[in-house]
Amino acid sequence: MDNHSSHEIPSVGAYVGVFGALMVFTAITVGAATLDLGMMNTPIALAIAGCKAAMVMWIFMELRHAPRLTRLTAITGIAFLAIMLILTFGDYYGRTLPDTPPKAWLPQPATAPAPAHAPSQGH
Amino acid sequence: MSTTMAGPHAAVPPPAAGGGKNYLNATSGLSSWLLTVDHKRIAIMYLISISVFFAIGGFFAMLVRLELLTPKGDLLTADGYNRAFTMHGIAMVFFFLIPSIPATLGNFLVPIMCGARDLAFPKINLLSWYCYIIGAVFALVAAFSGGVDTGWTFYTPYSSTFSNGAVLSAIMGAFFAGFSSILTGLNFLVTIHKMRAPGLTWGRMPLFLWAQYATSIIQILGTPVVAITLILVALERALHFGFFDPKMGGDPILMQHLFWFYSHPAVYVMILPPMGVMSELVAAFCRRRVYGYHFVAMSSVAIAVISFIVWGHHLFTSGQSVYAGMVFSFLTFLVGIPSAIKVWNWMATMYKGSISYEAPMLYAFGFIGMFTIGGLTGLFLATVALDIHMHDTYFVVAHFHYIMVGSAIFGYMGGLHYWWPKMTGKMYSDGWARLSALLIFAGFNFTFFPQFIVGYLGMPRRYHAYPEEFQVLNVMSTVGASVLAMGYLLPAFYFVHSLYKGKDAGPNPWGAKGLEWQIQSPPITENFLTVPVVKEEAYAYVEGGGGHH
Amino acid sequence: MSKEEGDTTRMATHTTTPHQPAPGGDHGHAAHPSGYAHQFEDLGQQLDSSVLGMWIFLAQEIMFFGGLFAGYSVYRWRAPEAFAAASNHLNVPLGGLNTVVLILSSLTMALAVRAAMMGENKQILRYLVATLILGCTFLGVKVIEYADKFEHHLVPGYNFQWPVASEAAGAQMFYVFYFVMTGMHAFHMIIGAGLLLYFINKARKNTYHTQYYGPIENMGLYWHFVDIVWIFLFPLLYLLGLHLGSGH
After folding, report:
1. In this model, does residue C18 exceed pLDDT 70?
2. Which of B285, C166, C210, C229 is the most exposed place for a label (fewest CB within 10 A)?
3. What is the least distance, in Å, from the CA of A111 to any CA of chain C?
4. Buried (b) or exposed (e) across B304-329, using 16+ Cβ within 10 A?
5. What was the ipTM of the complex prediction?
6. CA distance C63 to chain B (A)
């Protein structure tokens, strides 16, 4: 039944195989970091880490045999983390765009108009 | 439809529970309470604990209101006033409002409404109460060692560098209270998913359960973010790890982002459970199935999800990018949709219902009006241009008190009056309860409606002195607060009185539907002698034929 | 979360169950199988509930560490050169060694859970002890690394010194995150080690059987989660400046 954990005994081979793959990926991530790939270094490192994490979750943490609800729980956690990162970065990216108010804590050029948006307390 | 219950007052007699045994008298002695894993006893312990903090928070509120009676700062110094409103905020937000309904009514009712013997993890439930108590001790230490003057939001760099209050202790208090909230949410999610009785499908769940479910999602996904943020602030203060220190390349606004990522959803931790209570009250006292049941249920979940994408509206004026501000403004308006769905559906439920006017229903009426005012003024503040005018004025204070007091506490009080007979087996005096509800309603509006006006006129919040032209409105506010305080004191008397002199309530004094009304009052430790089987929808009242009292 | 109708475990099997647990399996004592907690209908429901509870707890943990990752990302985005230069003072061989040690401990932990599903308490014991030793190795290496940072004046707010003035603020921020992220990770490892000791003792007393192994499974989930955090920390902290050549 979809909603219950599978109680069959997983094979040792899968675990050892994942361990081997994780070792290989660790070597690749160190190797890739020694090359200067410009702005691609970090995305590649994160992609490899993501693959490793997915393998740990899928095999070691047995999401492959887990009920739908368990998988949904894992995805929900990751999705809300993504919401936090995207909206927070939206602010920091927005501040680099033109026509934003001057950053209040930086010294202002003498000609600039007084900042309309002083730091304030929260609601 | 109904197979297990007929009309009101024809409730199935409670399953014979040998010799009047119930969860209150099953065992005795202090350790039988402090080491209990019974969700009902833990609910009672939470009820007592949060009532203490409600009194503490109320005491500081009275200090604030008394200071503001006159334009000059004559009762408190500016510094003392900062400490008074901060302690008011910390006590009320972290130690009363967030645990209020989930930890008391939720703890008591979620397993019973599920038809279960207990929550999924009773020991973790007890651990949650101890986390709360550890946090409470930290908060009291902070209060007695001079208080905190940062505001309940702990904004840096003030909290990390300049404040000379007991900030670390208060932060630890909030941190532990947060973990008690996480553990409660975890328990509810697993219980609602895994322990519902046969036949209790998602589409038959009482709306209170739906509301608790949505609340738990916020508790699980939001609270840890504020926990780590508070740790970072504490480390910056104690070890000079300058996370939010511009000198080290840090950004104080990042602290506000992380703080409000939890603390805005936390508002919905406070308001979703009362919305669940509202649905129960409206159904029970109008003797109708809640109109648009599925929409009301789904709107709870929608509010929980949307609550996570609106936090930037707290940062409109603090240096956030205007583009982010515009996006957050738009997203904030979205919350209005599920909120309005709820209000319209409650009113549609009342329409042509046979309404009765017992004390819990009076709170429900109050809730609808107050929530509408609080919610609509929230839309004012979600508008960037208007917020730049009104931010940090009493308009904001009035807005969120209409949500947190006018709605959250009205829902809490309504729920407490509704389920008190179930929790204690005794009826309180309905006359006194109605009087108290009216006093709270009148006092509340006299306190906070003038603050909308005085805020719109430009009186800033968090100052102990103000220009003389604002005095009339401030006197009204303080007088209203005194009436409000009397309204809150009355229940302490008639509730305690009911324990000794109250009439026996019987299993179902309101003639209401729901699993909790089919068992004896107070329930036995195991709640049910046999696992109940649910064969009908929630609120399966016989319409038209359900003449009440 | 899941909204599908009727996924309660109790619906399918019991309709009017008397208030006593259903048989927990084929191991003889039907009324109270060992490990059974009274609020559940049977051990199957208990296992499902406890594993779901652990996953929900881990979702909470994702957000807890997520706050740190959000801060790290924002600050690194604002000072990429300083972060890369600061990263070059971390010891990549030791970090790499710890990565291998921790992944190996995840393997032994997974094998311990497998042994628990088979009810082999001796095997559980063996694999848990191996996991504990590997976890302690990780923490030992961490102590060596921390001590090195104290010696080289890389502890923010305490003795931080940085030769290049234009990078000093960003580099110090990098070390703030280095200490708090690895520190919070190590704190989770220490909690995990304590839990391992508890379960080692339980396994010694032959507590687990084929119907009751939820606690070991949850221990495993927690341990793997801590491993995953490290899988992200290693490239994000140690490998930023590798392509720039060694700093020391």
Report:
1. no
2. C166
3. 26
4. bbbbbbbbbbbbbbbbbbbbbbebbb
5. 0.92
6. 6
**Residue listed under structure tokens 């609106």:** B310
Compare all CA atoms of chain B with the CA of A116 and give the residue at the minimum distance: B317
B307, B318, B321, B332: best to mutate for the A interface, most A CBs within 10 A: B321
CA distance B331 to chain C (A): 21
Total-model pTM: 0.90
For residue C21, pLDDT over 60 is answered with no
Rounded CA gap, B474 and B449, in Å?
10
One-character DSSP codes across A37-94: -GGGHHHHHHHHHHHHHHHIIIIIT-GGGS-HHHHHHHHHHHHHHHHHHHHHHHHHHH
Q: Please give the Cα distance from C148 to C145 (Å, whole number).
A: 5
Q: Is A76 on the interface with B (CB under 8 A)?
A: yes
Contacts of C99 in chain A (CB under 8 A): 26
Q: Is pLDDT of C248 > 50? A: no
pLDDT at B412: 97
The set of chains that have 3 or more CB pairs under 8 A with C is A, B
Q: Do A9 and C114 touch (CB under 8 A)?
A: yes
C103 with A19: Cβ contact below 8 A: yes
DSSP C90: S
Tell me what pLDDT residue A99 has: 63
User: For residue B175, which of C177, C67, A88, C58 has the smallest C-alpha distance?
Assistant: C67
CA distance B526 to chain A (A): 26
Q: DSSP state, B160?
A: I
Distances in whole angstroms, Cα of residue B96 to Cα of each of A15, B130, B193, B272, C164: 48, 15, 27, 15, 50
Q: CB C73 to CB A85 under 8 A?
A: yes
- The predicted-structure confidence for B275-317, as pLDDT tens digits, reads as follows 999 999 999 999 999 999 999 999 999 999 999 999 999 999 9
Tokens of B520: 């004896």
Q: Is the link from the previous residue into B157 a cis peptide, with omega within 30 of 0?
A: yes
Contact between B421 and B427 (Cβ < 8 Å): yes
A105 lies within 8 A of chain C by CB = no
Q: How far apart (Å, rounded) are the C-alpha atoms in residues C231 and C234?
A: 6
Q: Residue C88 in 3-state DSSP?
A: coil
| pLDDT of the residue at A100 | 52
pLDDT level of residue C163 (50, 70, 90 thresholds): confident
**Residue A16 CB-half CA count within 13 A:** 3
C5 and B203 within 8 Å at the Cβ level: the answer is yes
